[in-house]
Amino acid sequence: MALPPSLRLSVTPPELELIACEQLIEIIPLVAMERTAFISGAFGPLRPPAKCKVPIWMATNLKLKKKCHIVPPDWLNVDFLQDRLTHETSQPEFSQLPFRFAEVAKVLLDVASDDFENPERLRSLLKDIQEARQAKSREGLSKIDHSELSLPNLCSMEINEIRPVFIKAMGVLSQLVREPEGRLPT
Amino acid sequence: MDEDYYDVDAILAENQKVQCTFKVTVPEMGHLDGGNERDIKPLSKVNIPMWMAYILIYSDYADFNIPPPFSSRVRNALNAEPKSVKLCNLVGQGGVWYAFGVMIMKLLNDAPANDMSEILVKTFRSRLPEVIDQAQHFASITTATAGAGSADPSGAFREGLDGTERELFTLAQVAVQTTKKWYNHSEVPGK
């Protein structure tokens, strides 16, 4: 199947969001549901007010219909994010964050901001963390090499943003760097 | 040169002219240089495009000098401040300075070729962060206003971008725009 040129460059953010939404999250259901089989697996039963783990796509759906409350994941609170932010600003390496934190945070803050105790502060913390990491990846860009690149602890959205640029830049560099043994057969 | 045979960018880059000194007499080809001589005499300087120069040099019919886009004057300017040199002006319109440099490099022997490679790599590496910075900055401005209006030094830098750098700029800009658009999109109706 041929993709239009705009989609060939890299994965689109909505696609990444879809993949991230397969992750499980805890909810407090407000309606009852039997154990139901979905394409990705069987979930439930939902017995209010007991907590239950369901995929994020299901949680979002139920929340929009006002049929559940979402329990924030343990990394999505002010203390954890504040600690990570100080880590980002004080050290040159990237700090450890859940791989798909950007997508999960965006979806949850969007749909269920009333289930968090301080959504505005969370949003601003997340934004600061993202900007700090972006600045670091820009610095890494200037040290780019033609043969390899290692950026530990980078998260899925960030990788996706810089992927086309890095690949092209490394390609150009590999053409510019002359191999000392003579020409390489390509 | 085989790997670039079908590549449009390589074909365009090959169209640059270099100055060659012929070593043999070539009868009836004097018109190539626009001169009014009938033959090309040995030791005469002729401006010929790269794709022709490559074969002539390999068959040892001509020698060539380092062309102006890579002269010592340009090299000194690049050593001083890579970001201030307008690469696209050096090679004619739609210029691809890097691709041209790669081709010259393939023709040279070891020592000068390593020099060339070093200059190319150094210039690329120092200009790259600036290109990406500007691309990310311009992701938030739509294409309508992205014309000549902005602050002078960055606008001047953007005008001096070489073809390859322009491609990188577009790639970065598109990536940032897509992410931003996704980020601002909301699932909740009426938000």
Automatic annotation (TrEMBL), chain A:
Q: Which InterPro entries match?
A: GINS_A, GINS_bundle-like_dom_sf, GINS_Psf2, PSF2_N
Question: Where primarily located?
Answer: nucleus
Report keywords, A-Z: DNA replication, Nucleus
The entry sums up its family as follows: Belongs to the GINS2/PSF2 family.
Looking at the record, the residues that make up the DNA replication complex GINS protein PSF2 N-terminal domain are 12-71
Q: Which CDD domains match?
A: GINS_A_psf2 (cd11712), GINS_B_Psf2 (cd21694)
GINS subunit domain location is 75-173
Supply the name of the protein: DNA replication complex GINS protein PSF2
**Assembly with partners or alone:** Component of the GINS complex.
The superkingdom listed in its UniProt entry is: Eukaryota
Automatic annotation (TrEMBL), chain B:
Which residues are in the GINS subunit domain?
71-183
* Keyword Nucleus applies: yes
InterPro entries tied to this protein: GINS_A (IPR021151), GINS_bundle-like_dom_sf (IPR036224), GINS_Psf3 (IPR010492), GINS_Psf3_sf (IPR038437), PSF3_N (IPR055221)
Respond yes or no to whether keyword Cell cycle is given for this record: no
- Where in or outside the cell? Nucleus
Q: What is its main location?
A: nucleus
| Keyword entries, A-Z | DNA replication, Nucleus
DNA replication complex GINS protein PSF3 N-terminal domain: residues covered: 6-57
Which Pfam families does its entry note? PSF3_N, Sld5
Q: Which SUPFAM superfamilies match?
A: GINS helical bundle-like, PriA/YqbF domain
Subunit annotation: Component of the GINS complex.
Describe its function.
The GINS complex plays an essential role in the initiation of DNA replication.
What family does this chain come from, according to its entry? Belongs to the GINS3/PSF3 family.
Q: What is this protein called?
A: DNA replication complex GINS protein PSF3
